[in-house]
Amino acid sequence: MTTRMISHWGAYDVESRDGRVVGVTPFDRDQEPSPMIEAMPGITHHGCRIATPMVRRGWLEHGHESDTSGRGTDEFVPVSWDRALDLVAGEMARVKAAHGNEAIFGSSGWASAGAFHAAGSQLRRFLNGFGGFVDQVTNYSFGAASVIVPRVTGNMDTLLRPTAWPTIVENTRLMVLFGGVAAKNSQISKDGVGSHDVQSWVRKARDAGVEFVQFSPIRDDMAGDLGADWLAPRPNTDAAIMMGLAHTLVAEGLQDTAFLDTYCTGFDRFRAYLMGEVDHVPKDADWAAEISGLPPETGAETIRALARRMASQRTMISVSWSVQRCDHGEQPCWMAITLAAMLGQIGLPGGGVGIGYGSMGSTGNPVTPGPRHSLPVGVNPTGAYIPVARVVDMLLNPGADYDFNGDRRTYPDIKLMYWAGGNPFHKQQDINRFLTAWRRPETIIVHEPWWTPAARRADIVLPVATSLERNDIGSASRDRFFIAMQQAIPPVGDARVEYDIYADLALRLGFRDSFTEGRDEMGWLRHMYDIPRQKTEMPDFDEFWQTGHVEFDPQEDPPVLFGAFRENPRRAALKTPSGRIEIFSETIHGFGYDDCPGHATWLEPAEWLGSDKIARHPLHMISNQPHHRLHSQMDFGAPSQAGKIKGREALWMHPGDAAARGLADGDIARVFNDRGSCLAGVIVTDGIRQGVIRLPTGAWFDPLDAGEIGSLDKHGNPNMLTLDKGSSRLAQSCIAQSALVEIERFDEAAPAITAFETPSVAVS
Length: 764
Ligand SMILES: Nc1nc2c(c(=O)[nH]1)N[C@H]1C(S)=C(S)[C@@H](COP(=O)(O)OP(=O)(O)OC[C@H]3O[C@@H](n4cnc5c(=O)[nH]c(N)nc54)[C@H](O)[C@@H]3O)O[C@H]1N2
Ligand SMILES: Nc1nc2c(c(=O)[nH]1)N[C@H]1C(S)=C(S)[C@@H](COP(=O)(O)OP(=O)(O)OC[C@H]3O[C@@H](n4cnc5c(=O)[nH]c(N)nc54)[C@H](O)[C@@H]3O)O[C@H]1N2
Ligand SMILES: [Mo]
Description:
Elements: E1 2-7, E2 10-17, E3 20-26, H1 40-44, E4 54-56, H2 57-62, E5 76-78, H3 81-99, E6 104-107, H4 119-129, E7 135-137, H5 143-153, H6 157-160, H7 165-171, E8 174-178, H8 198-207, E9 211-215, E10 229-231, H9 238-251, H10 257-263, E11 264-265, H11 267-274, H12 285-292, H13 299-312, E12 315-319, H14 330-343, E13 352-355, E14 385-387, H15 391-396, E15 401-404, E16 407-410, E17 416-420, H16 424-427, H17 431-438, E18 443-448, H18 453-456, E19 460-463, E20 472-474, E21 481-485, H19 498-509, H20 512-516, H21 521-533, H22 541-547, E22 549-551, H23 563-567, E23 581-582, H24 586-591, E24 619-622, H25 638-642, E25 650-653, H26 655-660, E26 668-672, E27 677-684, E28 692-694, E29 740-745
Parallel strand pairs: 6-17, 7-14, 8-9, 8-12, 9-10, 11-23, 12-13, 17-18, 18-19, 24-28, 25-27
Antiparallel strand pairs: 1-2, 2-3, 4-5, 4-19, 15-16, 20-21, 21-22, 24-29, 26-27, 26-29
The chain binds ligand MGD (2 copies) and molybdenum atom.
């Protein structure tokens, strides 16, 4: 049987036989399919699927009074679905009665594509229907940008709807990229990508004569055939480099004063800081070259020459999301907008700034603003939330006050955590600190298809069906396809579709009818398909389901970012307090945050190569996105495994750094700092700045001793080493890219990887 499917890494046709997925073929409309789809047959039937509902022995015997340090070591006891659902519903009712809905934390993550079965939406709908919970706001991806950019420009378009690639191809002459436009990243798009187009747009830009200048610690962040000039500054110094460019513009009278006067507010305040009138430190090219560690002989002149080039031709400034996933990550975003404003090209075709080109396979695509309908999640009656990356602070400090985006807030006291669709032992920084926090709640419930590190450390584990085991609609907001996600096989083992799990829980808790609204899966799909169909011309549902996809025409004349504002700054005023681009923000200034003052500012990251902490931990670790999987998803799949070295995650390091430590290609190394340690397999390459290492995210946490906090991770999870601190009091965002480490050879016998084995299960 052949059916169609879409994932975050692309659409494909599925060949299945006797309840097993046996092969996949890329969707024939995809011009550059991702090899990641090859993982699907193997992972669907992998031995680490969770066979049946499971309860941790300690929790089964003592309920919410169990010894929570047994999470991760106690054996699991298989139970029937009825028993499992009774336990979950009973515990939820108990917590609600004893502590209220604000004692429940619900969290999701990327999960799988699909408008209806989206794990985060299902979980929210269920918990809202139950009376509410503590939700999460912002994200790990672009959390700092998501707070600062709307404050400066009035909305998120700079991130989510920057000027489209065809406009760049046609009009841009120079593209200056902080973080590059990595081919590995554009394989992925949230909720699915029907055709991978980004790299072909970049090549079209090159063919049209666009020149690229790339600032990033890793050469591969741009494809080799683009002919980009590669500059490899110290990580986390992008704001300083942009200031060096900005200073040159002012010093040489190249800034666009008319643009600044008409469309911006507060340039004078920033200018005084930039020129050193405030702190006697001019942020000139020499200053920037020194901070960013560009070559002493040529660095400052390189910055000056680039500033002149940028001012003399149509220039697009691109900032990848990684650049803001660092301490004070608000600053490179604010500074990029400030610099673009000084160049005066914002709102012109192919000029200005975009944050996230290449970070995702959809950014900059010219798509018709999506006719899309997602599952309604209802309203959270508690209204409670935390900034997503502050989860450990919340668990460790109930009742403590903290700042977030101008508010003074208080952390709730969480008794029950419900995780569905995220892998916290992948995403969260400083895992040893997280392990302490993980012991705090009385009960942890996890929905997962696979025995992830989070599932292994839960009290109640409910096995869920994957996308291939249910029907759905793939309709990503910036993709031009609707894809019929057709069930290929029945759920593997005893797994159940999450919607049915929630419906049965809601029945026990007294709100089944409001949860289901009387619809089954296909009823919901028809309903969700017909809503956009009332506004857009589309085939009827049955025809869509049979054809397997609908393709919409790309926008013919995609809007230029801030084009309308440039044309008429009064009528199309920005939704900022001044109606203009806020180079200085009275509002942010008024918050009085020393870690995020009223204009873009150079603030030293907590850890970076310019700090004296390099005496003990001299290497800056970049834990970027992996080539052959999505985060921790499919880590046990064939494409991800093919990239491992002796079963460990591959760590890239510069020949000079490797030689100094007696390391060679294929060696196993121990990476460590005061927060933790892990093993990794060494790849020596001159494609990385000396002093920087790359250890991508996603290797499943695999401690030598699962019962011990601080144990060595055998597998290469970089979050053993990252710092768990907010970017600033403004955005409180994840700062994974600010971490110093040291590396040494690991000469002991390498311990076996056990992350993908089933944990110990009682024989019934
Ligand atoms: N050090 C470091 N850490 C980082 C980052 C970094 O750059 N460096 N990046 C951060 C970023 S940008 C992100 S977005 C996060 C990502 O963090 P997560 O979103 O938590 O990562 P995933 O591995 O995608 O986790 C999704 C989980 O959902 C499961 N799943 C799949 N489909 C379903 C489903 O239908 N239902 C349920 N219940 N589960 C399902 C998968 O098996 C997987 O375990 O990580 C962040 N962490
Ligand atoms: N293959 C694959 N693609 C993915 C994902 C995945 O898991 N796998 N995840 C997706 C998700 S959820 C997200 S949010 C996006 C993230 O998109 P990004 O945040 O753009 O991706 P990263 O791979 O973390 O970083 C891109 C490059 O930025 C460079 N970089 C890191 N720090 C700095 C810095 O301080 N300054 C400069 N100038 N450059 C720096 C690194 O060399 C890195 O390779 O990727 C998406 N794409
Ligand atoms: Mo992300």
